[in-house]
Amino acid sequence: MERARNSIRNIVFGLGGQILNLVMSFIYRTVLVKTLGDAYTGINGTFTNILMIFSLADLGVGTAIIYNLYKPIAEDDHAAIRRLMNLYQRAYNIIGVVILLMGFIMMFFLEGFIKDTEHIEHVYLIFAIYVINTASTYFLAYKGTLITANQKNYIVTNVVYSTSIVCYIVQMILMVWTKNYVLTISVQTATNILQNVITMRIANKMYPFINEDSSELPSKEQRKKIYRDMRSIVFYRIGAVITNGTDGIVISSSLGLIIAGIYDNHLLILTTIKNLLLQFFKGMTASIGNLNAVESNDTKYSVYNMVYFANFWLFGFCAICFWVLFAPFMTVWLGAERTLPALTIFILVLNFYITGMRNVNTTFRETMGVFREGKYVPITGAVLNLIISIILVNLIGLNGVFLGTTISTFGFLFWMEPYVLYKHGFKRSVLPYFTKYAFFLAVTLAAGLVTSLICNLIFARATIFAIAGRLLFCLIIPNLIFYFIFRRTKEFGMLRDTVMGVIRRKTGKKL
Fold first, then answer.
1. Which of 99, 124, 263, 338 could form a disulfide bond with 334, CB atoms 3.0-4.6 angstroms apart?
2. Computed over its alpha carbons, how large is the radius of gyration of the chain?
3. Where does 397-489 have alpha helices with state H?
4. pLDDT on residue 511
5. How many CB atoms lie under 10 A from the CB of residue 471?
6. Is the whole model's pTM more than 0.85, yes or no?
7. φ, ψ for residue 103 (rounded to 5)?
8. What is the DSSP string of 337-397?
9. Is 81 within 8 Å of 209 (Cβ atoms)?
């Protein structure tokens, strides 16, 4: 029950902060588009994607060390925790330096990733600020990981979102007042540094033993195991970066910054909602890690099925909302000229769903330490994604970029990722996973079709009133369909009992 309470607390604070961040990010993006234009929106997305590639310098050290922290935290072994944190600090200092060097080298090739730099002033200075922002995290953020691994991620969440809201306000004032993008993003870098410093000081107070004067590292045998895990994790990292970080680069280099900017506005919505949903998984990750460290395989599998079901409900519901609301919302928000065609939106929503459904497997694979097995799966899928996207963008344009994700996921990753987890993690047949997936997808498509037809009949025009009406129908119809179909299943009962049990224990108390 302690794991459940920590998970719920992390999820509640994560969702609350993400909702506030969602509101502020929309206001900020509106000011950015109206003040500086689509080109600056495009450069933001392109540089973010380039720096996502730089994050490969992590080499999986963070994931490997966090996994190794679960057991000593559960056993309250301060010495083992301190040794791991010393290794973590050394590794992240090196990574920060490597990212700075990579950023300097990238300066010489920057124009190859941007088709029309004439729309942007001080493009190299802007890129340098983005690099500093990324590198600073590695120099300062490692202690915050201990808070997260100890199932108290809500503390980090409060720091991040409270400072981010202030940052957005200051950025918008500066943007409107000065119309200076360099000054605007400098505030973001300063905020990032402040967030990490505050989190580090909190970690020092919560875990004073990590500040004891000791340079001792984990044993040679444990370091070998960590390095072995890292060599496997890096393949997963490369796969994730290629899959998530190259679409914007392909678009900006092939179709230009204006198209990239329009796409990035849509991506903002998808990413923000995805991050909102990921709070559910982030809130549970440390608790699942603790579960996998001490519980039986049957218990792990039972919890996995509950999380898999919750994963489907969340992403299925949100995918339906996107399909029904995306076009009218974009039209009202930024205008019809900045709204992507219906087919493009459908592909984006489909990709949102199929990539979101992979979260449960990723969470359990990482917390169960299934790193070496299947390490080539994600990078193979990602390379297929990139190759297909590059080929199709030259044949059919923008839709080709996104079809690369669809084809590579359904053609390869969909089959291999759960197979590896079931074989090496749960040690049982993967067939139930695919059976459930097919049923979940069919229910989502049917619920989406019903909701879309009803909304299109009642709300034909794109107005604020119509969006509110569509949202109301989206909140009711899919959830009712899901409820009546799944209310008698074991997973629904487990999820209901877990949530209600925590709520009952917390009644009259602060979360």
1. 338
2. 23
3. 398-408, 414-421, 431-458, 464-486
4. 44
5. 15
6. no
7. -65, -40
8. GGS--HHHHHHHHHHHHHHHTTHHHHHHHHHHT--STTTHHHHHHHHHHHHHHHHHHHHHT
9. yes
Q: Tokens for 137, please give them.
A: 């995290």
Provide the 10 A C-beta neighbour count for residue 298: 10
Pick the closest to residue 159 from 195, 213, 123, 127 (CA basis): 195
Residue with tokens 């044949």: 395
* Cα distance between residue 470 and residue 447, in whole Å: 14
Instruction: Characterise 338 by phi-psi region: left (phi > 0), alpha (psi -120 to 50), beta (else).
Output: alpha
71 contacts: CB under 8 Å, gap ≥ 6: 77, 293
Angle, alpha carbons 465-468-471 (nearest 5°): 150
Distance CA 2, CA 6 (A): 6
Position 112: which residue type? G
Structure tokens at 279: 């709070």
Q: Is the pLDDT of residue 230 over 80?
A: no
Tokens representing residue 45 in the block = 């997305």
Among candidate residues 409, 386, 411, 396, the one with its CA nearest the CA of residue 341: 396
* Contact (Cβ atoms closer than 8 angstroms) between residue 170 and residue 194: no
Nearest in space to 248 (alpha carbons), one of 235, 234, 262, 238: 262
